[in-house]
Write a structure and sequence with these properties.
The protein is α/β, with parallel strands linked by helices. 40% of the residues lie in helices and 15% in strands. The chain has helices spanning 4-7, 25-31, 48-53, 63-71, 87-98, 144-160, 173-183, 189-193, 195-207, 220-223, 231-246, 293-302, 309-316, 329-337, 345-349, 353-360, 364-374, 389-393, 397-406, 427-440, 445-457, 460-471, 482-492, 540-553; strands spanning 76-80, 128-132, 211-216, 252-259, 275-278, 319-321, 324-326, 379-381, 411-414, 420-423, 500-508, 511-519, 527-533, 563-572, 575-584. The protein has a 5-stranded parallel β-sheet, sandwiched between helices. A hairpin with a 2-residue loop joins strand 14 (563-572) and strand 15. Helix 21 (445-457) packs antiparallel against helix 22. The longest helix has 17 residues, at 144-160. The N and C termini lie far apart (84 Å).
């Protein structure tokens, strides 16, 4: 092909370009967000090519190309981000930029990457193998055979785009036979796992140019089969596939892989040369996924709805990738499409199976910690970005938090001591996690609402009746000590997290109180609760009174103003006793 011989071998030895106008970076990302008039947003999974051809709204992330080429134009890149944060759109953008079959396209002409002309020597110069492994998830059943069937079909569809290689005189007969075996569904597992490497060789032989490989959602079959018996076999096969595709592949120019998790310790990427991992802590490319504040402002300005910015911050902001604060792009665009109606759009599109699996097997301290976090309180923990699936199955709090961070349920910020501050990013996610907890402890919405009303009204009798209803089903809780009852109360109080910050074990006054509810708006009263466990039913009253006395003695209400509601609560088995008192400070 014309021009191909000039590229053969040369990009692999290329050095990072030196003419990058660093001082333009911010300007490019803020001024080149949307050109011309406001375009229609799309959340239907259109490729970059179709977004540009159909003139849909596109937020310019083209400098991801520069990030990659500057780092290593012959590297293997693993980019991990939560679902629906632009990984697939960015991958199709890379395909549009590098793929020789799209030669002479104009899709990048008004984007930031077009200002760096030295990168044009990479543009549409390579054969590109682009695969999305999302359809390899078992659908008919949970079996390994169902996974293999999905993987086989994905490979057959891939090979269908390269049928011309079967007619090429430059391609070996044995490679053609291997290709036909996959197409005819007669390939062995070993041959199937080597499909992409074989295709790579065929493309190189035909075009006389090294190949770029793009793999989207490499871990989808693993995250969606979490807890199933087939997962170990799926992991083993995918490890063989990745090893065959990426290791010692002399025809590979570069590879770019996306997923949610970094499954490095499992052996999936062991021995891969020039592997670059980019995760939510990475500063490089931190603004290339999700929407920055300036990008969101531009979208709302184009829609003539800057008045919605506070609502958008509350619902869809709060994520942090590297040094950049970002918004959920899928939720923001769906919000715009839905006439600016705030709802949990991301929740409907994701898969929370790993989270539910771990929470259902977590100890009460872990569940209580998650409940505390979604009530608006930050936690501090170690976070591992390269967990194995064995790590996840250990279900400790650190592992649970790490998984929730990687999947987008929690935000982290690094501390000086190497640990991380952990919090819920926004209202959308808070509601999502709250629903998961409610599903784990199937308490009716009526109970939540009535308990919230009774607590704000100081109605001790109603609170006792509702707690008895909850505790009577001992399958929800192991009622052995004070922390068990505290978790039960804490879950009941989730009906109030939209009006109160709910905290456990907080230092206040001269001690650590059990539960405090701090109102978010003026007009609501602060609430303090002290819990006790009684040895006998007869001592319930005295223990509840002791709770109130302790609140006064240790001045848990120090620094508060106005009316405060105090609760002394005692439990004997499933029998509660609640005393209340109102004070004015």
């Amino acid at each position: 092909m014309d021009g191909m011989s000039d590229i053969h071998g040369s990009p692999k030895s290329a050095k990072p370009l030196e003419n990058t106008p660093v001082d333009e970076k911010v300007t490019l990302m803020t001024s080149n967000v949307i050109s011309e008039d406001m375009r229609q947003a799309s959340t239907s999974g259109l490729s970059f090519r179709n977004i540009r051809i159909r003139d849909k709204l596109y937020i310019d992330k083209s400098l991801l190309i520069k990030d990659i080429l500057d780092q290593d134009d012959s590297g293997v890149f693993l980019y991990t981000r939560p679902r629906r944060f632009g990984k697939s759109t960015n991958m199709t953008m890379l395909d549009a930029f590098f793929n020789l079959k799209y030669k002479d396209n104009t899709w990048f002409d008004d984007l930031a990457i077009s200002r760096y002309q030295d990168y044009d020597r990479y543009r549409n110069k390579f054969p590109v193998i682009s695969i999305n492994l999302k359809d390899t998830v078992p659908v008919s059943d949970e079996s390994y055979e169902s996974f293999l069937d999905g993987f086989m079909e994905t490979m057959r569809e891939l090979l269908g785009d390269f049928g011309y290689l079967l007619e090429s005189e430059k391609v070996s007969g044995s490679d053609k036979e291997d290709m036909l075996a996959v197409i005819k569904r007669t390939a062995s597992e070993r041959l199937l796992s080597r499909t992409v490497k074989t295709l790579c060789h065929m493309l190189h032989d035909h075009h006389e140019v090294d190949v770029i490989i793009l793999i989207d959602e490499y871990d989808r079959a693993l995250t969606d089969t979490f807890g199933m018996k087939s997962q170990d076999r799926i992991l083993k096969f995918l490890s063989s596939f990745m090893s065959a595709t990426l290791k010692d592949n002399e025809c590979l120019q570069m590879a770019y892989i996306t997923g949610i998790m970094q499954v490095a310790k499992s052996g999936m990427f062991s021995g891969v040369n020039n592997l670059y991992v980019n995760n939510i802590l990475s500063v490089r490319s931190d603004e290339r996924f999700g929407f920055t504040e300036s990008e969101v402002l531009t979208i709302l300005e184009e829609c003539e709805h800057l008045d919605k910015m506070d609502e958008v911050r509350e619902w869809y902001d709060g994520y942090r990738f590297g040094n950049t604060d970002v918004y959920n792009p899928f939720s923001l665009l769906t919000y715009v499409q839905s006439d600016f109606t705030p709802e949990g759009y991301w929740a409907r599109s994701g898969n929370d199976k790993p989270i539910r699996w771990m929470l259902n097997r977590s100890d009460k301290e872990s569940v209580e910690a998650i409940a505390d976090i979604i009530s608006g309180n930050a936690a501090v923990s170690d976070i591992s970005m390269d967990m194995t699936y064995d790590d996840m199955r250990r279900t400790g709090l650190d592992n649970l938090l790490s998984l929730m961070v990687m999947t987008g349920y929690l935000r982290i910020a690094p501390r000086d001591d190497g640990r991380f501050d952990i919090s819920v990013p926004n209202k959308e996610v808070m509601r999502m996690i709250d629903r998961v907890l409610k599903d784990m402890f199937p308490i009716s919405d009526r109970l939540f609402k009535e308990f919230a009303i009774a607590t704000m009204d100081g109605d001790c009798n109603a609170m006792e009746e509702l707690l008895t209803t909850l505790l009577d089903d001992s399958s929800y809780f192991d009622l052995r000590d004070e922390s068990d009852y505290k978790l039960a109360i804490f879950l009941c109080l989730h009906g109030m997290i939209w009006r109160y910050d709910v905290e456990c074990e907080r230092q206040k006054g001269n001690g650590r109180l059990d539960i405090i509810l701090t109102p978010k708006d003026e007009g609501d009263r602060p609430i303090i609760m002290e819990l006790k466990v009684s040895d006998t039913e007869k001592s319930l009253d005295s223990e509840a009174s002791e709770g109130l006395r302790q609140i006064h003695e240790r001045r848990y209400y120090h620094g508060m103003h106005g009316e405060v509601i105090l609760y002394g609560m005692a439990f004997w088995g499933v029998v509660p006793k609640v005393f209340s008192e109102r004070i004015v400070l």
